[in-house]
Amino acid sequence: MGVYGLVALLVKLDDMGFYLVQYAQSITGLMSGILTKTGDLLIASLPKIIRFLEFVGTLAMLLVGGGMYVHNIALIHDGLHFMPIMLANLFAGLIVGFVILFILHFAKKQNKT
């Protein structure tokens, strides 16, 4: 299935839920209730899944970005050697991210004046 298949599944998750709810209205009995509940669950779960992926993706980007600095700049590597490597990568990613954010904020302020 791979990553692209998983993304396609996520994109269509709410569509599948809407289809199940709509189909459940055309039938009767126990199956109608099961399909309605399943469809509602799919529809309701998508925003939660997206928020979770947003958090995990941000964390991964900070770890990877910080890791590039930790592993390629000896001064940073030596300065953070006392930390577990994953924590050092996260710390470096956060620091670099905040520095870039500060620079962009300051540059934006300068352009307004």
TrEMBL record:
Keywords, in A-Z order: Membrane, Transmembrane, Transmembrane helix
Signal peptide interval: none
Segments passing through the bilayer: 20-37, 49-70, 82-107
Keyword Transmembrane helix: yes
Domain of life, source organism: Bacteria
A cellular component annotation (GO) from this entry: plasma membrane
Keyword Repeat in annotation: no
Matching PANTHER family: INNER MEMBRANE PROTEIN YEDI
The name this protein goes by in its record: Uncharacterized protein
